[in-house]
Amino acid sequence: MRRVVCPGSFDPVTNGHIDIIGRAARQYDEVIAAVLTNISKRGLFSPEDRVAMLREATEDYPNVRVQQFDGLLVDFCRENDIPGIIRSLRSVSDFDYELQIAQMNYQLAGVETLFMTANPQYSFLSSSLVKEVASYNGDVSTLVAPHVEQALRDRFAGD
Ligand code: ADP
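# adenosine-5'-diphosphate complex -> structure
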């Protein structure tokens, strides 16, 4: 069984995330989309909401499983028998950061990181930008799934 993890905050899931997860699902037998819920990294959405939105967004992929995790990614990999991590690169600045983390994870536990290049259509897209645009009532309908767009609208309705 060729299994990999696509880790992230997914706060909230965007079309860029789905693109990477979908492409990984074509390459591997099983993809675990793992939602990092470290307390120090408080998000706009609760861990439960992020997991639920990601589950709905990936429901068409039978070999994608969504899980929540806390702590070190390499421990999650060991516990779930996952030999590889998929991360995506949107820009050179992503690479600078990701290279260090990948080397650290290999050093810590021998877990490999495999990089996929972001689809150019989504290389400008991040959860933080989506939140910023949505907070000003901007149109994010081409950037996130309809249920995520609705969740953002609800979240910012009271602000
Ligand atoms: P993190 O805070 O760990 O970077 P994110 O939720 O921002 O978590 O991202 C999770 C993964 O999805 C990362 O590998 C990131 O590079 C990738 N990703 C984020 N946005 C995009 C995008 N627009 N296109 C492709 N991959 C993306």
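# post-check
Helices lie at 15-27, 47-57, 73-79, 92-109, 127-135, 146-157.
The first strand starts at residue 3 and ends at 8.
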